[in-house]
Amino acid sequence: MEDLPKLLRTLREDLRTVVERDPSVHTKLEALLHPALPAVWTHRLAHRLHRRGWRVLARLAMTMARAVTGVEIHPGAVLGRRVFVDHGASVVIGETAVVGDDVTIYPQVTLGAVGWRRDNLRTEGERRHPKIGAGVLLGTNATVLGPVEIGEGAVIGAQALVVDDVPAFARVLAPVAGPHRRGRAAERRGEPGQPHAVELLRHNASAGSW
User: Fold this and answer.
1) What residues contact 44, with CB distance under 8 A and at least 6 apart?
2) In what order do the strands lie in the sheet with 104-105?
3) What is the pTM of this model?
4) pLDDT tens for each residue of 54-68
5) Fewer C-beta neighbours within 10 Å, C or N terminus of the chain?
């Protein structure tokens, strides 16, 4: 209870952040109904329970928040101030992730590990998840895996897959789809045409299946 005033200040700051960064929200009353805010607030409480050894209760809080918001933030993860989760759908943040101040997270972002086969070989207490610097923007369906570091102010674009460190203020962008100029006539001439629909589906599914 000794840090209750600090916690309340942080929760109020989270509320103001929603108003400031979501153009569709105009008042704090509207911000209270933001779909991802309950996940962030619940994590603030669950993280404190986790640090004090109340791991089961902390996980219960995480599970309830996930059921309501679609956002899964492990109680062990560290969130900085003014972290904004926009919409929140299918956001996953792993146990040892560290998220700095003023980070913006769009839907379907994963801050994950590389898998139990490798992580089980790490020494106890070693970080398995990313460390995100202050002011980073994580675009829709961006996936950052392993104990990598994303420098402050970096932009990780939509659909990007990151498995290595990213320097401060860098931009990591996935290829942007464009119109295919070759059609049926090109296919009749034996030239490459548009990819088959199944191949496109397989590519897109694999890009977001981590």
Assistant:
1) 7, 10, 11, 14, 79
2) 84-85, 104-105, 137-138, 155-156, 171-172
3) 0.82
4) 999 999 999 999 999
5) N
